[in-house]
Each structure stands twice: as structure tokens, then as C-alpha cells.
Design a protein that fits this description.
Distance between the termini: 21 Å
Structural class: mainly beta
Largest sheet: 4 strands, antiparallel
Strand order of the largest sheet: 7-6-5-28
CATH superfamily of the largest domain: TolB, C-terminal domain
Oligomer: single chain
Number of domains: 2
Number of helices: 3
CATH class of the largest domain: Mainly Beta
Radius of gyration: 28 Å
Helix content: under 10%
Shape: elongated
Amino acid sequence: MDFRLPDSTGSRVIKRVTGVVLCVSAILAGPVVARADTVYVSNWSSDTIMRFTPDGVGSIFYRGGSESFRPTGLTFDSAGNLYAANRYSGIYKFTPDGTISLFPGVLGLNYPRGIAFDSVGNLFVANSYSDEVLRFTPDGSAFSFAFRNGLSYPNDLAFDPAGNLYVANPGLNTIVKFTPEGQGTLFASNGLSSPVGVAFDRGGNLYVANQVNNTIQKFTPEGVGSVFASTGLNAPSGLAFDGAGNLYVANTGDDTVQKFTPSGVGSVFASTGLNAPAFIAVRIEPEVLDSDGDGVSDDVDQCPGSGPGDVVNASGCSIAQLVPCSGPASGGNWKSHGEYVSAIVRTVKAFAAAGLLTPAEGVAVIGAAARSNCGKPRTSATGGRWDMEGRRDGSSKNSR
């Protein structure tokens, strides 16, 4: 028998058998594979970089101090360090532990915009006011990778899986493709209207933010273009994909970040703390396996088999697993029914303190435990104790 407890998100269910609480479950099962990708956004007008959780909860990652800080392009290297181009004072590097430094050898920068790493760790920078793309080796040595050569106010960069560099060229309404050796060709021009942002999906398709006509164009590897999105956009700028294939768009015109599913369904991902958002980078985390679907990854789950949607603690354990009806989890039998109920009460308090149970749910769990036969000895000559379904230890359903 189940009974439901209403909450702000719908119904939650306390499942029980013969009055014994088994678990507290959500109606919908949890995912088997989870991600925790984090979205970073450069705020052009407020001199900040914002960080957003997968649920769109934002916080300030970095705010410029006494130095002139006007963040533009963002990207990650293979080690998970975040790099941010600053219009006035070079390229900033942020390590995962929070250490901040200036990328070495940033001479020659002239209004740097988009930045991207190639597969061997060279940093490429769109030098917008010089109509140039610079290449910096890991030690900071600078080289001119492309100068003019079809470039006009280059704004953003993206590498395809083969190592070719694509440059958003708003000055000429084009996308220019450069081989690893620096040979440039026109990749696309049809349908482009001040293209300022570029990003590749996992299939090798190139997405382009058209800032003037408020669209996102999608180009196949062969250069065939189509409109991917045209709603919810207001001066779209930077683009980035998460590990699940969702596209994030910095909407400079209305201070939002839009999120589009792989099928093109859009929604507002974030709108707080944004002030002329310009570029986006996503820290893509490894997929986390959650075999039992309880929201706790297998590498830390101490109670496998709790089930999809079960309310569990940080170790992946439900109340029923921590306080089994058959006896303490450490082994043996309950000395009395009161000992079992006391253990339930302690566990419910711990779950409530962690925000896992509402007061009403906690009362319901304790009440169900109090009405159960857990820890009660049988009074018949057969002896033994009751199990979760009201059966004596070792007996069948029909033996009592």
C-alpha cells in the first residue's frame, strides 16, 4: 500500500509493506548517467565572469579589481583551466583551485575577442582590431597565424575535430576556415548577418550566432546551412555546448543565456547577474554512472540498489537501508520494538536536518515505524521476530 504526501513539486510517495516504511520516492525515476557541467559567462558591461550550475543558479566567479578588466572570450584547456581574454590587459588564467595568473607573452594583442586551444595546447586569439589571429605556444611565444587573409574584425574561433580553425568574421559576414598550416578559404557566407559566435557540436556541425538578424545558423561539415533557432534570441553572441549536446547562447541584447536542446527547443537558462553577456564556456565534467538511479554516483554509493527516485543521503543510503526492519545494519536483531523506532527517529532527524525530508514526511515515516512489527517478538510458541512483511524470521507467509 502507498500513501502520498503533497509537496511543492507534486506528490511524493512513502512505499510500505504491512505498515513498514521501505523508502520515500519521487514519482519520476532518476537518471542512470548524470552530469554536472558548469557554464561560465563573460559579462562585458559589469567586468565580471559569472558561473552557473546545471540548474542555472549563478554566482560571481571573478570580478575585476583595480586593473581594467573587460572580459571577452572564454575557453578551457585540457587540464580544466579557464582562460579569459581581457580587452585591456591580456589573457587571464584561472586554475581549478582558484589561482589566478596572466598568460605569459601577450604582446601584440589589439582588442582580443574569441580564444580557443588546439589539440596540442597552443592558444589562438582573435585579434579583432588588427584583422588577425595570433597563436601562442604554451610558453607564451607569439606568432601571427593569419593576418587579413579574408579577416575583418574576427570575433570568435572554433576548431573542428580535424584541427581546422573556423573564424567568425562579422566585418564581412563570413566564416573563414584555416587549415592547421594556416591556409584560409571561405567556408560560409549565405544567411549570415554579423556572425559573432561559433561552436561545434559532437557531430562536427558548426553553429553560428547571427547578431543582427537574431538567428543561429547550423552548417554541416560540407557547408550546407540551415536555421537552427530564431526564437528567444536578442543579439546572440557567444555559443558553447555542454556534454549532453545542449547549446548555450549569450543573449547580449536582453541579458540572458538561452539553452537549446539538440532538437532546437529553447528556454531561458539564466537571467540573473548578467550584464551584456558576451562569451560562454562550459566546463564539461565526466559522465557519472549511477546504476541504481538514486542520484548518487556509483563511486561513492555505499548502498547500491536503493532504487530510482529514492530519497537517500550523501552516501546513497535510504532510511530503510540504514534502519532495516530485520535488525540493525551492523548485524543481529533489534532488542525491542522501541530500539527500532528510536533508530528510525534518529535517522529521520538526520535526513530532515539535511533537507531530505519535510516535517510532514518525517512524522509519517516515524508513525509508520511505530505501527510496524519491527523488533517485536512473536508471542506464539514458535518464537522468533517479525520481518518487514510481518513474518516470523525464517518462516513463510503462511507459516504463522
